[in-house]
Each structure stands twice: as C-alpha cells, then as structure tokens.
Amino acid sequence: MVREVLAGASTFITMAYLFILYPSLLSEAGFPFEAAFNATILVSIASTLAVGLYARFPVAVAPGLAVGAYLVYSVILDGNTPKDGALGMVFWVGFALFFLSLCKARQKIIHTMPVTIRNAAIGGMGLFLICIAAKDLGLINKGSQGIFAFHTFGTIEQGVAAFGLAIFWILHFFQSRFAFIASVACSFALSIGLGLTHIDKWIDLPSLQHLFLTTPNLTFPLQTNCMEALLTMLLIALFDTSASLIALGQYGGHMNQQGQVQGIDKIVLVDSVGSMTGSFFGTGTVTFLLESIAGLKAGGRGPWTAITIAALSTGSLFLYPLLATIPHYATSFLLVAIGGFMLGACRQIPWRKWSDALPAAAILITIPLTFSIYKGLAAGFVLFVLCKTMAQEKDALHPLVIGLSTLFIFHYFIF
Question: What is the SS3 assignment for 61?
Fold first, then answer.
C-alpha cells in the first residue's frame, strides 16, 4: 500500500507540469485558461480512476499533447475550424477508437507490431522526452528550417536541473523509492533558495464557472472537408496510445509470455471513452502518459497507484497557485531520467541485421527530430516492409503490418 502511494506520488510529480502546459495550449485557441485548467484535471481524474479501478493498470491517463497540438494549430487556427466543430471531431475520433477496441482491431495492431519497431519506438520516445526536456531548459531550440540547434548553456536554471538530476541518480543507485519525489523537492528548494522563484499563495478555491468550455458540434465533422483532419487525428491518437501502452506494459511488468499487454481489452476502452468524455469538457483525446514510468520504477503495480494519482490530481484543483510556481526546470530533468530508462530498449534491437537496423534507426531519428511519435512509426513501418521484402524475409511480414504501411503511404500522398 505504501509503495503504491509513493509510486502514484512519483508519477503525479512528474506529470504535474501537464496541468499548466495543456491549458496554456488550449488558451492559444481561445479557450479560457482557468476553465481549461479545471477541465484538463477533471478529465485526467476520471480517466485515471477508470484505468485503475476498471483495468487495474497503474498509470496516469490525461489529455495528450500530440493530438492537442494538432487540434489547436492545424485544425482550429490554421484550418479555421470553429472550436465546437473541432471538439466534435475529438468525439468522433474517440468513438472510432472505442469501436476499434470493441472489435479488437486496436489490440491486433498493438500485438502484431514487430518487436524491432516496438523497441525502436520505446527508444525513440525516450529520445523524444530528452529533447522535450532539453528544449524546456533552453539547451536546444528550433531553427528557421525546423531543425533543432544548440541554444544556451550554463544558465542558473540548467544548474538547478543538473543538481536535481544528480540527486535522482544517486537515490536511484541506492534503489530509493523516494528518488523522484526527493529530487524534485531538492531542486525546487534550491530554486527558492537562489531567489529564482517564490511562493505567494499555496491554496485557492477552484472556479468551476464555464467548466464546459463549449458544447461539441457532433454534426460538423461529418462534412467531407473534415475527412483529412479526422483521419490524421485518428492515426495520431491510435499510434501514440499504442506505442505508449507497449512501453508502459513492459516497464510495469504487464506483458505475458506471448509479449502481449495483460488486460488490454479493458485498458483500451478507458482512453477511448475518456476521449469522448473529454470532448464535452473541451479537451482533446486522452492518452497513457509516459511519465507514468516514474511510478512504475518506484514500484507501482496495482490500482492504488492510479487512485493516488487521481487523488493528488483532485488536490491540484485547489493547489493551482503552488503548481504554477514550480518552475519547469525543477521537474523537466525527470524526463531526461525516464528517457534514459527507455533507451535501454534499444539493446534488444538486432543491429547487425540490416533489415531490422534501418527501420529502427529511422524511428529513432524521426521521432525526436519531428517531435512526432506518429511520423516516426510511419517511417519505421514503411521501411520495415521495404527492407524485409528486399531481404526476402516475407515470413516476418504480417498482413496487418503490410496493410498499416500501405495506410501510412496513402495518408502521406493523399493528404
């Protein structure tokens, strides 16, 4: 019980930045920040409780940044789509995921994903998290051509993050379950001591006025000119959640001897229902947070981990002033640690076999460079089929893998 609570607290501390970042993202599309803050947390609470109590999976479920960013920048802002129409699209994407889950098509996609692509995706997502942390710390920045370049080194904030990371690795070396919590506490305390941040107010009553940001227009997405955005959003949500679920299943010991995620039939229903629910609150589709690896590393294995995450998330409704004062560099170093753990999956890739090495390398390069798990998996799937065909290893090609590669090519050239 104590271990589960510590694990849930570790995950919450690692993911808490999302409760500030995601509402900020929605606010760029014109949603009120405070209402978006409350909506994000309430959707996270409901989805995380569901995955813990119904599926007994010890992870956090919350609105995903991948679909959220596409929804805001490509659909609402660039596509001039009204907010209620965009949320209607979120509902139908969630419904499609729910239908695919009931038909067990999602489960089939996840379980037939080649081992090479699985391990490369986990490693690529690890690099993705490290790049996110480096960007937050100002170490890298996007250039005019979209390529990341080195930016600033030696700032005080980076020093605080390095201090927190050092504390974490020392505690982790001695197998302390307090590694995640203690390292964040130490870095936050140091930032206060250096005068980089200060706390004016700890607690405030949440305002639930205008909680439902806008009612989704369920008929708008049925127009033909929305098919491109609908398909893109569905593919991003489908493969983002699939890759995350595989990674969390491996780190949480939820894989059976056949390499399949245990209890997957219940797990995939949670995020699809959560996505449909989120559309009525004003958020995008939900996903299984990779930050949950913090709790899995701390020993989280049962439903109490998810219950603890939900309970602390509920408390964050009242602790908004405190959460807002925690600087990003006091927590972002944990993304580096988690990313380092995930890179360990690359050891299981048969690098001496070129038909496996090339698609794996494509995934590892594409995901962090494009900041897109979906694009990395698309490149990996297509190259995997080409390489295995050229190497005359057709036994390694499941018909579903060929079909998914064809879908990726179709989506790229048609849309």
Answer: strand
